[in-house]
Amino acid sequence: MGILANGIGGYVAPAFENLTLWQRVYDHLRDEIMGDRLPPGAELSEVALSKELAVSRGPIREAMGRLAAEGLVTVRPRRGAEVRSITPRELIDSYQVREALEVLAVRLAVPRITDAELAGLDELVDRMAKHAKDGAVADFFAANVAFHELLCELSGNKKLLQVHHRLAGEIGRFQARTLALRGSLDGSVTEHRAILAAIRLRDVEKAAELTAAHVRVPAQRLLESISEGGEISEDGEASGDTALGTSQERAS
Fold it and tell me: Which domain holds residue 119?
């Protein structure tokens, strides 16, 4: 059984004819990690994966390198690899950098955005609204990620998009946690519509302000919850930080 047939856990991967073998392995493992079927701390053995996916260890090693570069996997010399855990402090840091990146993306994108590109953003917000109404949380997050990625793409800055993509991967693994911090899907849709309205009016400052406020909410609430528990010291460092995504947290 190869990776294009039944893979890990009976997963059926699509036949991406234009992708190399290592890219197929990468896509498969990334989907497993983002879907929490390979949770933080899970061991990733090249030997075991080679048997389960029926591919040689070379493509697996290349895929691991790409996943490590995106911050999703930790490669440990002579000890194999594991799905990377992330502390609350690290998640806050990621949100702070994401806020700065998306504000810059808005400032770069608004003056150059076309009506067709606006329609693309609008369609994604409509999709989010539909998924929120249907309670389709996974589909909602997929449309949400696509909206923010497209906004960064429209900035015209490829390095910005590259860094944002990595941060989105780190943050996206904890969708349930960030949703609980944000409040509701409907509230998120409202915030996206406000951002889009400001972009449509070519109001750079308002769009940037709304984007910053939207991205900042989960980080602020997470920081408040940690501070209330006495886990953040006066210099801002976390004391007693525990990794997010442990089995205890997923059960809570």
Answer: 88-232
